[in-house]
Design a protein that fits this description.
This protein is an alpha+beta fold and 165 residues long. It has five helices and ten strands; from the N terminus they run αβαβββαβαβββαββ. Helix content is 30%, strand content 27%.
Length: 165
């Protein structure tokens, strides 16, 4: 991505957050090589850093699934929550076409295509974190947001959709 595309992505993210009345903080960060490095760069515990996955349903519609660091998707649980028999992880090119964000930067904020959002219920285990970290659409930045404000802004579904890694 070019710097102009990165800037455009951050602008889309900030405008969407504002439209949803969800306060976010954009945090610059250097290139990282692990979950632990990424979490440290954003000042959060690894379990507070959520990966945003784009999932494709068999009817060619998509959904976001947000999974905390240290956990992995549980396909059976997600299929049960969505009441579908088949789900897949689209290739990077398809995810980019749907969201206009590259893998590793994908966020529901500012997605080209608004999608339903599932967030793993483990995010809300006590004590609930003050902030969670997400991609920002830009590889040089992360995004911090209150989990409660995020759920309210997206009318996200909180569900048990992961297992420990």
């Amino acid at each position: 991505m070019s710097e102009q595309q990165d800037s455009e992505a951050l602008t889309r993210v900030m405008l969407d957050a504002s439209k949803r009345s969800v306060p976010i903080e954009i945090v610059p960060r250097a290139k990282v090589n692990s979950l632990e490095e990424a979490a440290a760069a954003l000042g959060v515990h690894p379990s507070q850093l959520l990966k945003t996955l784009v999932l494709k349903r068999s009817d060619d519609t998509y959904v976001f699934a947000l999974i905390p660091g240290g956990r992995k998707m549980d396909w059976a649980k997600i299929r049960s929550v969505l009441q579908v028999n088949k789900l897949s992880l689209p290739d990077a090119e398809t995810a980019l076409a749907v969201t206009h964000f590259a893998r590793g930067t994908i966020t529901p904020f500012g997605s080209h295509t608004p999608l339903p959002v599932l967030i793993d219920s483990s995010v809300f285990d006590e004590p609930v974190p003050e902030k969670i970290a997400l991609g920002s659409g830009d590889p040089g930045h992360g995004l911090l947001v209150s989990p409660e404000a995020f759920v309210a802004g997206f009318e996200a579904t909180i569900a048990d959709i992961s297992v420990p890694q």
